[in-house]
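Workshop exercise sheet. Pairs work together: one partner reads the sequence aloud, the other fills in the structure field after running the prediction. Swap roles for the next sheet.
Pair: D.N. / O.F.
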Amino acid sequence: MEKTNCVSPMRVLRFQDLPRRKDAVPSRMLHWFLAIAIVITAAALVHVWVRLQIIDLGYATAVEKQTQKKLAEKNSSLSIRLTELRSPGRIEKVARERLGMDFPKPSQVLEIDGVPAPPATLKVALP
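Structure field:
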């Protein structure tokens, strides 16, 4: 089989050769229309994105407020517990019952720098 170069007798049409309509929109006006459409679409997409960010931040804020409320309640209960643990009556009770401690005997009390030691039966009342 032999290859032959055949040239088609048909004429090649180019875009410039096509007949034009007289009422066709000028290309410059079409470019402006497309540019405006792209700007409006971009603005709409940015607006939607901003709204979604606002909604997302609203949800995050609600979660953080819930966490803050729980932590405030825990802080309050821990403050009450700390006050209970620091009470002098409880400390004295733990010292006597668990640790076997008692007030010192008068012979066990030493005077330092001329300051007399408090009597052994003195109980301090703290608020």
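Discussion prompt: The radius of gyration is 46 Å. What would you look at next?
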